[in-house]
Amino acid sequence: MTAHSNIYPTKALQELDAAHHWHPFSDMKSLNAEGSRVITSADGVWLTDSNGNKILDGMAGLWCVQVGHGRSEITEAVTKQMNELAYYNTFFKTTHPPAIALSEKLAKLAPDHINTVFYCSSGSEANDTVFRMVRTYWDKMGKRDKKVIIGRWNGYHGSTLAGTSLGGMKAMHAQGDLPVSGVHHIDQPYWFGEGQDMSPENFGVHVARKLEEAIDQIGEDKVAAFIAEPIQGAGGVIIPPETYWPEVKRILEERDILFVSDEVICGFGRLGEWFGSSYYGVKPDLMPIAKGLTSGYLPMGGVLVSDRVVEGLMLAGDDFNHGYTYSGHPVCAAAALANLEIIERDGLVDRVKTDIGPYLKERWLKLGEHELVGEARMTGLVGALELVPDKKNPTKKFSDVGVPGTLCRDVSFEHGMVMRAVRDSMIISPPLVLSHEEADHLVATAEKTLNDTYRILKRDGWM
Ligand code: PMP
């Protein structure tokens, strides 16, 4: 069978998939018994499955397809680059025009103090690069004790050893005996889940100060960096209270540690600015990027590195012994350039800020009135609905956390829309090209989904 074949019936495809394909983050025993959904094509914000169903891609793939599916400009740029130079590396005093052009472009888009990019193929590799880069930076600065990297519980920074370790997903740490040494986790700014005994404003400051407490407890001379997503994505679209980032900013300005803003989800317009840290007015020393860099058309990631860190790393005049075969891959770089050109030409970042972002938010927040929803939240084009068993008592959780969320996700699929479930939060992150009409459709489908999920949960005694 060829990879392009659409002539096989769904069941045959599912059986072959079950026989040979191990999926990420999956219970393969139950998935193989159930059968995977087979997506065969996509256009704009719409996916088509092997049964011919049209599905609204409320997650932009996996938080990445900023410009929507099926953009021929990217295909053409990739084809052209493939024909010219399909591959060459960037090791051994070598470079090539796509890597040069993309680096210049990224330096222009990044804040003024950031002018350099190190390439890799994914967000996870970007964070592995960060891990080695911050420790090496302090070594070169002569501060060899500065090793500890502070991350946050329920943060997500990837699946590799460093990515998993920097992230704060306990279920991931449990597999592979992680985190590696020298990583410390502090509380997350999750007001709905963990802070409702305080006002959001007080909770934001309270939880930001956990960073200060951790630095003091470990010792500033031992802390290398703090890493955080501007808004936690995979953790459940945790939008921090407004007081959180200003307080973190104050702490970072007073302490000599590096700040790593993980922009893998929040970068490239998701929050209505080019980078999430710009949205919150914080100044990163390093920014891991991936996903929206190419809109997922080809795998590419990188670390945007500030002048301060570049200068530090260059101090000793020796190699930074780190790199990947596909660092700066010419075809991926061509895809990234074409993608960024579309984002700029179509004004997608501003569109999120002033048009589709506020339009969708107004309608999405109204879903917060639903009997099943304890909180609706949205910033830019990422949002969440917290499902609760008792609306009058929003701190109460479902007895079996995650089961109602998974049910709701499945109902949403039946209604023709991808919403992802994280615990019992339903989350969306649609392509930045979502039209007003599609936004209306998204909200109407979410409402239908909530109604049906509510009915089933009531019937089955969950609430
Ligand atoms: N950082 C963040 C914030 C992410 O959301 C992700 C992926 N969801 C990663 C890193 C890892 O990226 P990748 O899956 O490309 O390795």
SSE arrangement:
Blueprint: H1 10-20, H2 28-34, E1 39-43, E2 46-49, E3 54-56, H3 60-63, H4 72-84, H5 97-109, E4 114-120, H6 123-140, E5 148-152, H7 161-166, H8 170-173, E6 183-186, H9 191-194, H10 200-218, E7 223-228, H11 244-254, E8 258-261, H12 276-280, E9 286-289, E10 301-306, H13 307-314, H14 330-345, H15 348-354, H16 356-366, E11 373-379, E12 382-387, H17 403-414, E13 420-422, E14 425-428, H18 436-459
Parallel strand pairs: 5-6, 5-7, 7-8
Antiparallel strand pairs: 1-2, 2-3, 4-10, 9-10, 11-12, 12-14, 13-14
Helix pairs in contact: 1-2, 4-14, 5-14, 6-13, 10-11, 15-16, 16-18, 17-18
Bound molecules: 4'-deoxy-4'-aminopyridoxal-5'-phosphate (PMP).
Organism: Roseibium alexandrii (strain DSM 17067 / NCIMB 14079 / DFL-11) (Labrenzia alexandrii)
Pfam families: Aminotran_3 (PF00202)
GO molecular function, one term: pyridoxal phosphate binding
What does this protein structure show overall?
By secondary structure, the protein is of the alpha+beta class. Helix 10 packs parallel to helix 11 and helix 17 packs across helix 18. The mean pLDDT is 97. The chain has 18 helices and 14 strands. Helices cover 42% and strands 15% of the residues. The chain has a four-stranded parallel sheet with strand order 6-5-7-8, with helices on both faces. A four-stranded antiparallel sheet has the order 11-12-14-13, with helices on one face. A three-stranded antiparallel sheet has the order 1-2-3, with no helix packed on it. Helix 11 links the parallel strand 7 and strand 8. The protein has two domains: 142 residues, Alpha-Beta Complex (Aspartate Aminotransferase, domain 1), CATH 3.90.1150; 273 residues, Aspartate Aminotransferase, domain 2 (3-Layer(aba) Sandwich), CATH 3.40.640.10. The chain binds 4'-deoxy-4'-aminopyridoxal-5'-phosphate. 4'-deoxy-4'-aminopyridoxal-5'-phosphate binds next to helix 6. The site of 4'-deoxy-4'-aminopyridoxal-5'-phosphate has 16 residues, from helix 6. GO terms for molecular function: pyridoxal phosphate binding; transaminase activity. Pfam families: Aminotran_3. Keywords: Aminotransferase, Pyridoxal phosphate, Transferase. Its cofactor is pyridoxal 5'-phosphate.
